[in-house]
Design brief:
By secondary structure, this protein is an alpha/beta fold. The chain is built from 10 helices and 9 strands. This is Macrocin O-methyltransferase.
């Protein structure tokens, strides 16, 4: 699944982006999620998929209650992997929540944090905006679109405060910006079970995302050590 989702099998070339100017497939970039694939269903790379896999294995082994939630899903690849993991294990009491605007990055001119405005990721929405219908089709290609997959569609500040998620075992944030990250932390982290994992994808590359993480941790007295996954992502395990 990891090789198919990252398309290391057919080696599609990347699209031009703020992270890569290359025009040919580079196995190193694809492994570490350093390009935006033209075809693959995820851009996070093999290392970050390995991390999601390890977190899912641990919460299941330890009996940590709750679902898998990702905020910011692009083509849906990470959520597809999570659903495939649950299906392969025959686990039927956990859901996969797919949360996204399905319209790309919000206009950075509307964001309060100055670094968000400088990044101008919304200028890449031609690539980053993937419709819910397309994500659903991607799930269907793996025969994994079923009632264990739930969608939360809309801008995070409008949807996450009332999201019907009860308990979370693995929470993965990939909203890129300060406000997207902070909104997800404020409304979803309290639902993360003790022993569950919080993964932040953009921590290493987007300063405003990192700011949101540290501000939230300081405000709530979170002291669990932050573990680096790769040059982009980090995670920590919530204590009791």
């Amino acid at each position: 699944m990891k090789k198919v989702l990252t398309n290391t099998v057919y080696e599609d070339a990347p699209v031009a982006s703020v992270v890569s100017r290359g025009t040919a497939y580079d196995p190193d970039l694809r492994e570490r999620g350093g390009d935006w694939p033209a075809v693959a269903h995820t851009m996070v790379g093999l290392r970050r998929l390995d991390d999601v896999h390890a977190c899912l294995e641990r919460v299941v082994a330890d009996g940590v209650p709750g679902d898998f939630v990702e905020t910011g899903v692009w083509r849906g690849g990470v959520c597809i992997f999570a659903r495939a993991f649950l299906a392969a294990r025959g686990i039927t009491d956990r859901l996969v929540w797919v949360a996204d605007s399905f319209e790309g990055i919000p206009p950075t001119s509307d964001c309060r944090h100055p670094v968000d405005r400088l990044m101008r990721l919304d200028a890449s929405n031609e690539v980053l905006a993937v419709s819910r219908k397309q994500v659903e089709r991607n799930f269907e290609k793996y025969d994994l679109l079923d009632d264990r997959v739930r969608f939360i569609e809309g801008w995070f500040h409008e949807t996450l405060p009332t999201a019907p998620v009860e308990r979370i075992a693995v929470l993965r944030l990939d909203g890129d910006l300060y406000e997207s990250t902070m909104t997800a932390l404020e409304h979803l982290y309290p639902k993360l079970s003790p022993g569950g994992y919080l993964i932040v994808d953009d921590y290493g590359a987007v300063p405003s995302c990192r700011d949101a993480v540290h501000e939230y941790r300081e405000r709530h007295g979170i002291t669990e050590p932050i573990h680096r996954v790769d040059h982009m992502a980090v995670h920590w395990r919530r204590g009791g």
